């Protein structure tokens, strides 16, 4: 059974006769302890605060039966690891990329910062984690104001919190929509056309950050933590 924030993507699942529904990762309408396994791929890095990222993992753990496992993937700050460039860096602009999110014909705006109430314990823990990350050497530059940097596609990250441009391919833009547009390079002027660009929020994770968040929960243990093609990954077991 799958779930997604995007109704358009869930509709595609329905057309392919898969079971899927629309929901929020912070509140999944499934009974506690009813899942043998859960996966969360490229979801948690879209949540804008440490509290919300922690709450998402706690919700994932709630769904698992004791002994059940969860696999989590998030985008890594380190796109070059152990002297190896990630596939993301290797695929330059203009090459044929197979990013599913870019080819679905849908674009999503960043989520608002309205979320569920969090306990003071979670808040103090996230503050400590934030301080630890600031003290660490992750290569991230501190943000001096509330404006997020816009990332240049297929390049290394210079900030953990940023906006990634998503070019809507083959879509039509409504007149009332207010989105940026870019000139898509083509073989001739006649083949060039304007495409809307959506800036999507990401928090890219430093080495050890995802594992640290998971270890703060008493209900799970980290079975494995690893790096995979520009992503930090963990496998959790429900206690």
Which structural traits does this protein have?
239 residues, alpha+beta, Rossmann fold, four-stranded mixed beta sheet, 6 helices, globular, tRNA (5-carboxymethyluridine(34)-5-O)-methyltransferase activity, ALKB8 protein, methyltransferase
Number of helices: 6
Strand segment tally: 11
- Label the structural class: alpha+beta
Distance between the termini: 23 Å
Name given to the CATH homologous superfamily of the domain at 35-86 and 149-169 and 195-238? Vaccinia Virus protein VP39
Mean pLDDT: 80
Strand order of the largest sheet: 3-4-11-10
Q: CATH first level of the domain at 35-86 and 149-169 and 195-238: which class?
A: Alpha Beta
Shape: globular
Strand content: 25-35%
Low-confidence parts, pLDDT < 50 over ≥5 residues? 94-126, 181-192
Radius of gyration: 19 Å
Task: Name the helicity range.
Answer: 10-25%
Topology:
Elements: E1 2-4, H1 7-15, E2 20-22, E3 35-41, H2 50-63, E4 64-75, E5 80-81, E6 84-85, H3 87-90, H4 100-103, H5 120-135, E7 161-167, E8 180-183, E9 194-203, H6 209-215, E10 220-228, E11 231-238
Parallel strand pairs: 1-2, 3-4
Antiparallel strand pairs: 4-11, 5-6, 7-9, 8-9, 10-11
How would you describe what is shown here?
This is ALKB8 protein. It comes from Rhabdornis inornatus. Residues 117-126 have a biased composition (Low complexity). Keywords: Methyltransferase, Transferase. Pfam families: Methyltransf_11. By secondary structure, the protein is of the alpha+beta class. Among the domains are: 1-30, no CATH class; 35-86 and 149-169 and 195-238, Vaccinia Virus protein VP39 (Rossmann fold, 3-Layer(aba) Sandwich), CATH 3.40.50.150. Helices cover 23% and strands 28% of the residues. The protein has helices at residues 7-15, 50-63, 87-90, 100-103, 120-135, 209-215; strands spanning 2-4, 20-22, 35-41, 64-75, 80-81, 84-85, 161-167, 180-183, 194-203, 220-228, 231-238. A four-stranded mixed beta sheet has the order 3-4-11-10. A hairpin with a 2-residue loop joins strand 5 (80-81) and strand 6. The chain is globular, with a radius of gyration of 19 Å. The two termini are 23 Å apart.
